[in-house]
Design a protein that fits this description.
about 70 residues, mainly beta, 5 strands, about 0% helix, about 50% strand
Length: about 70
């Protein structure tokens, strides 16, 4: 497997949960399923790893409360 430096951001984070959700492509309105893997750290910051069509991507870090629910801005 090729080393992917962008995943270094997950150092210090722990796995919280994984789930599937339906995703709709904006370009052609097709539906697919995405797997979301959520990681959190002790400072109440979360990052989601999204697997869709064989591609991995990370969301921007976001704040969560003590129940690990996103904090609205």
């Amino acid at each position: 497997m090729e080393y992917l430096e962008e995943f270094n951001i997950l150092l210090g984070f722990k796995f919280l949960e994984a789930y599937e959700t339906e995703a709709t492509c904006k370009e052609d309105n097709t539906k697919d399923f995405a797997t979301i893997i959520r990681f959190v750290n002790e400072k109440h910051v979360a990052i989601d790893m999204i697997m869709l069509d064989g591609e991995l991507s990370l969301t921007e870090p976001y704040a969560v409360n003590e129940n690990f629910k996103p904090i609205d801005k």
